[in-house]
Amino acid sequence: MRSNSCKAEDLPRFATRRRCESFIKSLKREEIYANKYENLENLRANIGEFIEEHYNRKRLHSALGYRSPEEFEQQRKRESLVGSPGATVEFVVNDGNPTGLRFGCLCHEEVQHEA
Questions:
Q1: Are residue 30 and residue 75 in the same domain, yes or no?
Q2: Which of 34, 36, 30 is closest to 55 using CA atoms?
Q3: Burial of residue 85, with CB atoms counted within 10 A of its CB: 0-12 exposed, 13-18 middle, 19 or more buried
Q4: Do residues 66 and 23 share a domain?
Q5: Do 104 and 56 share a structural domain?
Q6: Does 67 lie in the same domain as 44?
Q7: Is residue 1 part of a domain?
Q8: Which of 43, 77, 94, 114 could form a disulfide with 37 if both were Cys (CB 3.0 to 4.6 A apart)?
Q9: What is the three-class DSSP state of 88?
Q10: Whole-model pTM?
Q11: Residues 101 and 74 reside in one and the same domain
């Protein structure tokens, strides 16, 4: 007997399936049913172009606040640059000096050394 209950561990799989079904629905409605194709190769080429040029770049997506992926990425980059303190990387260098190891910090493209 098949159960209709949903377990917590099944949720990621259902979410992925929902996104796939939504994409297929958009692909059929916006590309396949809206055009006529000469042959299978023409269909494949148009689907590839639809995905790369329209769906991934220009089409508004509800999950992105009704923005295109390009617009979403540009805004995300702008927001990450504004107020970002920059990267800080700590490192250890053994340059053969008699005291042993030097500790340093790479901050905003400058190297600061500590003894």
A1: yes
A2: 30
A3: exposed
A4: yes
A5: no
A6: yes
A7: no
A8: 43
A9: strand
A10: 0.51
A11: no
Element of type H or E holding 83: none
Residue 67 structure tokens: 């923005």
Nearest residue to 24 via CA among 53, 49, 47:
47
| Structural domain count, the chain | 2
Backbone angles phi, psi at 102, to 5 degrees: -110, 145
**Residue 84: how many other CB atoms lie within 10 Å:** 8
Residue 89 backbone phi and psi in degrees, to 5: -125, 125
Per-residue pLDDT of the chain (115 residues; tens, 9 = 90+): 444 555 666 667 777 888 889 889 999 999 999 999 999 999 999 999 999 888 888 888 888 888 988 899 889 888 887 755 555 555 555 556 555 545 454 444 444 444 4
Grouping H, G, I as helix, E, B as strand and the rest as coil, residue 57 is coil
